[in-house]
Every structure is written in structure tokens, then in C-alpha cells.
Design goal:
Number of helices: 12
Strand content: 5-15%
Shape: elongated
Order of helices and strands: HHHHHEEHEHHHHHEEH
Number of strands: 5
Length: about 280
């Protein structure tokens, strides 16, 4: 926050300085007090150019004025910071709209993604998650509650392993299991993400086998070249959506960052329904 305010202060000072210098440099000379001014006939541009050229800017004086103003009105910095954040959020929202429109199938209908809730639901929420993300582990209860309470909700689970090699290997097992037994993927996901301890390749395989997967077939599926290709596409998609952490969601035409909790997610879902 302090860094942001410092940046805001610098921006304000620079902007005011530019405005001040621009105003002084672009203004004609003002007659000194007590000097009579009379209208002059229009001649050539030379007198105006000379007036501008002769204008002297006292940099120290202008900087002093800016400093005094900011010290007397520090709330201006907060106003500018708020305006900047609002502008950046709006730019981010508009950029996300374009990405969602152009990559709708990849976001909502990728064959590599698991689906829980109603597979034919009217509204889809997509979660970018990592099996070792603590916030994702807590947010799994939100997913369970929302899909249970809303029969029209389709919940898409998009593998986004960003927390190291263990996460990546666990996700490889997850995707291989999904390719083998999609009907049991929800159970696998709940067990691995909702389990205690760190998710690894070994823990993921153990859960897969407990749900009936054949180990030899599973390990062979884990070598499928389409899995790293799917990860690459997801990383690229996340980059375009400016998603850098987990959990993050796409609800309708909106990208939602962080574990907001069940109530706020439900509000986003209702807004998406209203927009249909």
C-alpha cells in the first residue's frame, strides 16, 4: 500500500509539474502591475512567438508550489490512487471480455477439464486451481455447497498447477484419471484437494487406485502427450485473462480473483444468470 501511494505521489507530482510547465510555457506574458494594456492590431505570428520564447520558467518555484499543494491537500493522492485503480480494473474487465469471447470453448468446454454439478447447467463457473493451494482447499466447500443448492450450476475444474513440481505431477495423475474414468473425477478431485497434507504424484495415484483405476493403465495415460499440451494452453489462457493466482474463477463474462466465499460467488452466479 505504501509503495502504491508512493507511486501515486510521484505520478501526481509529475502530472502537476507537466501541467504547470505547459501552462506557463504556453501562456503569453502578463503585463506587470500598473502597466496599461491597449489592443494591438493583428500583424504576424512573430510577436506571439517572441512572447512565448521570452517566457521564463522558474523550475524551483513551480516545484515548490506543487510540494506545498500536496502537503496541504494529501487527500488528493488517495483520490488519484482510487481513480487509477478504478481505471485499471475497468481496462482489465474489458480485456477479459475480449478474451472470454474469443476463447469461449477453451474456457468453458475443454475436454480436459473435469465437470461437477449439472453437466448441462444453464450457468457455468470455471475454477482455476492448484491441488496444493491452501485457499483452494478451503474453497472446495464453496463448490460443494453451490452445486448442491443450485441444480442449474455447471462447475468446471481447470487444472492450473503453479505451486511447484508436486502440484504439476499431481495434476498429471488427475488428468490421466479423468481421461480414464471421467464419471468418478468428482470423487477423485474432492479426495485429493480436500485431503490433508501435500498433494503429490504418490498421493494422487493412491486415490486413483482406491477409486478403481488400473495402475498400469493409469501410468501409461500419464505419459499422454496431450496432457502437457493442455497445461500449456491453460497457462496461456490464464496469462491472457491476467490470472496469476489460485483460486480464480470465470463466471459468465467476468473474471473473479481469489477465494471470495460462497455468498459472493453465489451473487456472481445470479448476475450471470440474469445476463442470459
Amino acid at each position: 500500500m505504501k509503495k502504491a501511494l508512493l507511486l501515486g505521489t510521484t505520478g501526481v507530482a509529475v502530472a502537476l509539474a507537466m501541467l504547470a510547465f505547459g501552462f506557463v510555457a504556453g501562456s503569453p506574458q502578463v503585463a506587470k502591475a500598473g502597466t496599461a494594456q491597449t489592443a494591438q492590431p493583428v500583424q504576424t505570428a512573430q510577436p506571439v512567438q517572441t512572447a512565448v520564447a521570452d517566457t521564463k520558467i522558474d523550475r524551483t518555484e513551480v516545484e515548490g508550489i506543487i510540494r506545498d499543494y500536496l502537503l496541504k491537500n494529501p487527500e488528493v493522492l488517495l483520490e488519484v490512487q482510487d481513480a487509477l485503480e478504478a481505471k485499471q480494473k475497468e481496462e482489465q474487465r474489458l480485456a477479459a471480455l475480449g478474451v472470454i469471447k474469443n476463447a469461449k470453448d477453451q474456457i468453458f468446454n475443454s475436454t480436459f477439464d473435469g465437470v461437477v454439478g449439472n453437466p448441462n447447467g444453464k450457468v457455468t463457473i470455471v475454477e482455476f486451481y492448484d491441488y496444493n493451494c491452501g485457499f483452494c482447499k478451503r474453497a472446495i466447500e464453496d463448490m460443494r455447497a453451490l452445486t448442491k443448492s443450485d441444480p442449474d450450476l455447471r462447475f468446471v475444474l481447470k487444472e492450473f498447477p503453479i505451486l511447484g513440481p508436486d502440484s504439476q505431477k499431481a495434476s498429471v495423475v488427475s488428468m490421466a484419471f479423468h481421461m480414464m474414468m471421467p464419471q468418478k473425477y468428482g470423487e477423485f478431485h474432492n479426495a485429493l484437494l480436500g485431503g490433508q497434507g501435500r498433494a503429490t504424484e504418490a498421493t494422487a495415484i493412491k486415490i486413483a487406485l482406491s477409486l478403481g483405476a488400473d495402475e498400469a493403465t493409469l501410468r501409461e495415460k500419464m505419459k499422454d502427450a496431450s496432457i502437457p499440451q493442455a497445461f500449456s494452453k491453460t497457462y496461456d489462457l490464464a496469462n491472457k485473462l491476467q490470472i496469476t493466482g489460485t483460486p480464480s474463477y470465470v463466471v459468465g463474462n467476468e473474471v473473479v480473483f481469489g477465494a471470495l466465499g460462497q455468498e459472493l460467488l453465489a451473487e456472481k452466479i445470479e448476475a450471470a444468470k440474469a445476463a442470459l
